[in-house]
Amino acid sequence: MAKGYWIARVDVHDTERYKDYISTAKPAFERFGAIFLARGGQTEAVEGQARARNVVIEFPSLQHALDCYNSPEYQAAVKIRQEVADGEIVLIEGQ
């Protein structure tokens, strides 16, 4: 079965409240088998506009990735994140 991935690019405006997003999202990530492959860390923008924080999360399948995003636990976290950060999340199927 092909794995699923989240690719998230975020500019955080309130680092203290962003911690609330992380703790609120954690149960959803645990429930759907998320493995963080890259989180924060140094980046090098070689094309296009960069964001300050970049995250790659692996899931057992694209359906797991989608179910995690749509879960009540993660949707509670989305509300916090949207208040304290700007960004994008793309879900993709991979190897």
Question: What does this entry look like structurally?
Answer:
With 95 residues, this protein is α+β, with helices and mostly antiparallel strands. The chain contains three helices and four strands. The protein has a four-stranded antiparallel beta sheet. The mean pLDDT is 95.
Features:
95 residues, alpha+beta, Alpha-Beta Plaits, 4-stranded antiparallel beta sheet, 3 helices, 4 strands, globular
Q: Note the main sheet.
A: 4 strands, antiparallel
Number of strands: 4
Instruction: Decide which structural class fits the backbone.
Output: alpha+beta
Radius of gyration: 13 Å
Label the CATH architecture: 2-Layer Sandwich
Task: Give the CATH level 1 class.
Answer: Alpha Beta
